[in-house]
Design goal:
The chain is α+β, with helices and mostly antiparallel strands. Helix content is 18%, strand content 45%. A hairpin with a 5-residue loop joins strand 2 and strand 3.
Length: 137
């Protein structure tokens, strides 16, 4: 049985890279995917956990509000809350993470100078009015 899921969404808070006692890199992300329009807009938050070299590479490549595509598998954990009751949580263990270029260009060098150049170039290429979440065709 294959338990593969793909999500495409925006990173909610700044990713924080940490290392386990054994030295393995761990990166946790909150990623929101939204769909629908106006009053019918719905959002789903996903807890994403990334390990090893992928965690290090992802931490060096993305930041808060970036659009990402994550491929991985779902894991469910059971835990005991402070009040003694049992609860479950679901998280996505990432096998692959990539930057989505659907709404924004991805730029490796995010220095002020480079971002100003990218902004000027993209500004010239964008139509005067462009719908927020609609497909351009």
């Amino acid at each position: 049985m294959n338990n593969t899921i793909i999500i495409n969404g925006r990173i909610g808070k700044e990713p924080e890279l940490r290392f386990s006692q054994s030295g393995n890199a761990v990166l946790e992300l909150s990623v929101v995917d939204s769909y629908g329009k106006d009053d019918n807009k719905k959002s789903t938050w996903h807890n994403v956990v990334i390990f090893g070299k992928l965690a290090e590479n992802t931490a060096a490549s993305v930041s808060r509000l970036d659009n990402v595509i994550v491929v991985g598998r779902l894991e469910q954990d059971e835990y005991t809350k402070k009040d003694g009751s049992k609860a479950k949580s679901v998280r996505l263990i990432a096998d692959e993470v990539g930057v989505s270029c659907r709404w924004n260009a991805w730029v490796r060098d995010r220095s002020e100078e480079t971002m100003a150049k990218v902004g000027a170039t993209i500004g010239k290429q964008m139509p005067a009015s462009y719908p927020d979440d609609e497909e351009p065709f």
